[in-house]
Design brief:
Helix content is 34%, strand content 24%. The chain contains 15 helices and 19 strands. Strands 12-11-8-13-16-17-18-19 form an eight-stranded mixed beta sheet, with helices on both faces. The chain has a five-stranded parallel beta sheet with strand order 2-1-3-4-5, sandwiched between helices. A two-stranded antiparallel ribbon has the order 6-7. The structure holds cytidine-5'-monophosphate.
Amino acid sequence: MDGVVTGGERQDLAGKHIVLGLSGGIACYKAADLTRELVKAGATVQVVMTEAAEHFITATTLQALSNRKVYTSQWDAREPNSMAHINLTREADAVLVAPASADFMARLATGRADELLSLLCLARPIERCPLLLAPAMNREMWAHPATQRNLAQLRADRTTILGPAAGDQACGEIGDGRMLEADELLADMVAFFQPKALLGRRVLITAGPTFEPIDPVRGITNLSSGKMGFAIARAAQEAGAQVTLVAGPVHLPTPRGVRRIDVRTAQQMHDAVLPAAAQHDVFVATAAVADWRPATLSEQKIKKNGNKVAPAFELTENPDILAAVARLPKRPFCVGFAAESHDLLKHAREKLERKNVPLIIGNLGPATFGRDDNALLLVDARGQRELPTADKLTLARQLVAEIASRLSSHTA
Ligand code: C5P
């Protein structure tokens, strides 16, 4: 997860009805957690199991976790019209099959429909009820040409494939074919339903503080946690962008699908960003970059000298990364941040001109550093707009929508 606020707290799937299908495989044990995560995120979950899945986990467990009766047979007598395969998908926003076994994928690829789960996948209204699969199988089964052929066919039939991951397998082998974990599947489901406002765009983001070493054990840094920048990276990725995140020293997990480059100093951040910037459509400078660094780095730890005279440091100015990107001949759409303690609007407007960027986001430094909530003030040439207090991912999604709408009218 993003480490900011979980989907559950934000109810990212509120109002969504999901048919969760289980086919046979040891990864069925993860479906219990997945059901919980989906329900916590606000979804209603209707579980449907194949006969093989029932060998790995009981319907009772999934019924208790989803708070709904589980369907296991197309001959289920509970449906008045005897058409469970039709009824189950008519209200569904998506069908997610997790785990999807090699056999189940083969069945779907050929349009088989001789048990309830494959039958309902075939009978679903394809235009408004998308199908997502989380494959789970031994690496040889996954790599087999037959499975890869079925996979290509399923993709051609507009099926979304989540994962699989590589790693240790229940059989003792190591390789591709592990089902994604429940929290990863939840993040992918949440992302699936987000508007694709940045589809095909490339977004470069800086986040976190920088650390400017004084000696081998000390340095100058600040209280930025990186949470806002990481939330923007996640929101941009959810919106369909290819995201590169250049992160200072922070303790945050990388959002799913985001390419991360770790750096420590402002100079390293500059050197990672500048060559990459022109290949991106958007640059969001969220990082709290140290303005100054010690002019010289002491090779050894600076010791107390006994005469109570404090050591003196000479400081030298760090490169301004945002201003440097904004000066590029082929510059991306640049978004800067202004963390202030007062006079937000005045400082943000001043920064808009000084850095020559089309959009500055003002926020109050003491009220945001390290916190999960924030409030933003968007300032551009046309005026200003407030995004009131919310968790950082919610704000990041709103900001991504604002950037996307400006991007369509932007010329570099
Ligand atoms: O220069 P100042 O700190 O007032 O502006 C903040 C904005 O500029 C932020 O977007 C920050 O990421 C960016 N910045 C930068 N490189 C610096 C200093 C700030 O990219 N050396």
